[in-house]
Design goal:
With about 450 residues, the protein is α+β, with helices and mostly antiparallel strands. It has two domains: about 200 residues, no CATH class; about 220 residues, no CATH class. The chain has 17 helices and 14 strands.
């Protein structure tokens, strides 16, 4: 019988010494191929898992300028007949008369909700001949309190500007550079659209198209008529409303909606009966509901996160089984060492804890590598990865801006740590526990 050469540290029963970092590094050096294969297998599994987690984090986390996502409710339209699917829109007068007086939201704002998404808008470039296609939003002044933009120059238009329908606009840094050049002052100058001039009052840092409720090139006050040229009267354009409601205020918010519903139904004799409590949506539900591939299987946003958890577990199961086989093979080779340690008085739980810590260290190293791989894939292939996961409504070819806060946050750190821990427990605990149950004599007789 040929025994593995255990070091003095290996033979000591102390869990603290046996599980020390130096001991783990020593074991990694002794079996470099095993360590490399374990880390690589873990890294690939973590990379795929974290890529999905990162994508969903970017879409639902409180990331600037959409810092209120977790508290946001959206109301774009209301249904009167759930069976027929008929829906109707609120208008500016409804927002000002009914919703603007609400007390429970800490912030609220509105923007014109233009159904004609196929309409293109163009601004005139400085040469006077060429045009540039732009995306626009028509909003109220509260929009710039609800969404937190980084103003590089100037400031948003005020309530007084809005009430007096002054033709002011806020533009992005990218548009400013197109019009006036990099680093040039844009505030106070004008831009031209449809033969009309609008004075620039503010320039903001260009937002990512991944923030779909706040991204645009140009923002107008919706009190300014004539911006949407395909409508005869701009006041007839429906509005989308956003409410930021803290958790303690949510019940009060729903009660206020109930009161608005009662007032509306009692005074609007010739309009359909409202039931808006069923039509106001949480931001997460609103964002994820267009994932048609999931809804084909009858899934709702109520259980969508449970579904994602199942998908992640399935992604981890196959690599965990492969790693489990590797751990079991290695444990068989280490049985003589474990038997000697038992003979010196080491307890089974101490040895099991050491094995789990050794594999957890390798798992965390692999997890760090995998997370870096996920970041690299997300950044390098950002022009199509969000389309592939059906998470971007923008046209294919538009490259999203990816910022540091999108890559990493407390939630992502906790998810990564949890995934690594689950993978380690699935892969290491069972084979180690089965191996350590064998009697000392049988383990001593095991050949290397």
């Amino acid at each position: 019988m040929k025994l593995q050469k255990p070091s003095l540290t290996n033979l000591l029963p102390s869990g603290r010494l046996g599980g020390s970092l130096g001991h783990i590094i020593s074991l990694m050096k002794e079996d470099k191929l095993y360590s490399a294969m374990y880390i690589l297998g873990t890294a690939i599994a973590i990379a795929f898992t974290m890529l999905i987690a990162e994508i969903y984090y970017i879409k639902v986390a409180d990331i600037a300028p959409e810092v209120n996502r977790s508290k946001t409710y959206i109301l774009e339209y209301y249904h009167t007949d759930k069976e027929s699917g008929a829906c109707y829109s609120f208008h500016q007068e409804d927002y000002l008369e009914l919703f603007k007086k609400m007390k429970s939201p800490e912030y609220m704002c509105a923007e014109l909700y233009d159904y004609h998404s196929d309409i293109n808008y163009y601004m005139k470039l400085p040469d006077g001949f060429h045009d540039k296609k732009v995306s626009i939003r028509l909003v109220d002044p509260d929009y710039f309190q609800f969404f937190h933009f980084n103003f590089i120059q100037g400031a948003p238009f005020t309530q007084d500007d809005f009430d007096n329908a002054r033709p002011l606009v806020v533009i992005t840094e990218e548009i400013s550079q197109k019009l006036f050049g990099k680093g040039k002052k844009a505030v106070g100058n004008t831009l031209k659209m449809d033969n009309k001039e609008y004075r620039i009052c503010g320039v903001i840092e260009t937002p990512s198209i991944l923030a779909e409720k706040s991204t645009a090139d140009i923002w107008f006050p919706f009190s300014v008529e004539g911006v949407l040229t395909h409508y005869q009267y701009q006041r007839d354009v429906p509005v989308a409303m956003y409410f930021s409601v803290p958790k303690p205020k949510r019940e009060e918010f729903m009660q206020e909606l109930k009161g608005i519903q009662a007032r509306y139904n009692s005074t609007k004799e010739y309009r359909p009966i409202l039931n808006i409590q069923n039509d106001v949506e949480k931001y997460t539900d609103h964002t994820l509901k267009f994932m048609s591939d999931l809804f084909q299987f009858g899934l709702s946003t109520d259980n969508i996160f449970g579904t994602f958890a199942i998908v992640i577990m399935l992604l981890l199961l196959v690599p965990a089984l492969n790693l489990c086989g590797m751990v079991a093979s290695r444990m068989n080779r280490r049985l003589p060492e474990m038997a000697i340690r038992k003979a010196f008085g080491a307890k089974r739980r101490t040895l099991l804890g050491q094995v789990i810590m050794e594999n957890l260290t390798l798992t965390l190293i692999g997890g760090a590598v995998g997370l870096c791989l996920a970041w690299a894939a997300l950044y390098g292939w950002r022009d199509w990865v969000f389309h592939a996961f059906n998470f971007l409504k923008a046209k294919y070819g538009q490259v999203p801006i990816i910022k540091g806060e999108m890559f990493f946050g407390p939630a992502i750190f906790l998810v990564a740590l949890l995934v690594c821990t689950i993978l380690n427990v699935l892969a290491a605990a069972l084979p180690a526990w089965l191996s350590l149950r064998k009697p000392i004599v049988e383990s001593m007789m095991t050949k290397k």
